[in-house]
Amino acid sequence: MITIGITGTLGAGKGTIVDYLVQNKGFVHYSVRAFLTEEIQRRGLEVNRDTMTAVGNDLRAQHTPSWIVEQLYEQAATSGCNCIIESVRTPGEVAALRGKPNFYLFAVDADPKVRYERVVLRGSETDHIDYDTFLANEQREMDNTDPNKQNLGVCIREADFRFDNGGTIADLQQQVECVLQKITYRRPSWDEYFMELANAASKRATCDRGRSGCVIVKDRQLLVTGYVGSPAGLPHCDEVGHLFRQFIDADGSISNHCVRTVHAEQNAICQAARRGIALDGATLYCRMTPCRTCAMLIINCGIKRVVCERKYHSGAESEELLRQAGVTLEFFHDEIQQYDNQ
Questions:
Q1: What does 146-210 look like in DSSP terms, one character per residue?
Q2: pTM of the shown model
Q3: Distant-in-sequence, close-in-space partners of 252: CB < 8 Å, separation ≥ 6
Q4: Terminus-to-terminus CA distance in the chain, angstroms?
Q5: Distance of CA 221 to the CA centre of its chain
Q6: 51 vs 125, which has greater pLDDT?
Q7: Phi-psi region of 335 (alpha: psi -120 to 50; beta: other; left: phi over 0)
Q8: Which of 140, 158, 225, 299 has its C-alpha lying 20 to 30 A from 1's C-alpha?
Q9: Beta pairing, strands 328-331 & 305-312
Q10: In this predicted model, what pLDDT tens digit does every residue of 24-62 receive, in sequence order?
Q11: What is d(CA 147, CA 164) in angstroms, rounded to the nearest whole number?
């Protein structure tokens, strides 16, 4: 779960960033403004900039400087979704959110005259003000030594990423997109890396019933690859169709299997044999639990670890064979791969 807090000057474009993240990136929106509006209405007060500031400061004084955003964060945490908390305005709020995992603070700004024009066009209940009042309101919120009160200046300076919204909406969205790519990027583990290579190999497979790929690795070096396909020189399923045979699976169920092709694991092991590559102590990455024949080949060629993306629905016998032979078997997911019996 990623949590983004947004701070910035009046009319700078916080809402534009929110809309982009919600509509295009699936973020869930939590608004300090909406939270305060509800509280102001509960108190029977008029909703305007003055009451917004006063009630916000009062709630922070009654509880803690970060109380409002912490209420919103608790709501966000229960959803488990990426979320965005709009209108972070105090250093205390920033400090509290910094303690949350995967938190990033965005700040947005623009020329005051441009921002005032936007505020006038927006026309919300807190925006019916003249330019001088607009500037005065902003200055009041920019700097304050009371930790319970708004201090946009400090919040903006503490932002992880700052955006200039002096151009078009598309320009701002492009800035946000570049930042998202930075904060969502995660370097893959070695297992994830080699599984991606196995999945890439599967794109060469020639049986549409199970396009599987396989790679065999030792000491983090790629040795050989394999994918589902017919023996060399023979027609492929994609060209002439499947060649089905009926089998009784280990769980007692009867299913139809295509016997035209050589499995990805078998092809990879054959490639190693043809090239004289020893597989002792290697790791094999594949899409799902190897079949019994593949499991026996894996054992005999000395592979000591098998990493599968998913379990096969009738793979219990292979799992037991590998276990008895001392081959480590791991799965990325507990999901069970099913095939239609056709």
A1: -TTS--HHHHHHT-SEEEE-SS-HHHHHHHHHHHHHHHH--PPPHHHHHHHHHHHHHTT---TT-
A2: 0.56
A3: none
A4: 41
A5: 28
A6: 51
A7: beta
A8: 158
A9: parallel
A10: 999 999 988 889 999 999 999 999 878 988 898 899 889
A11: 27
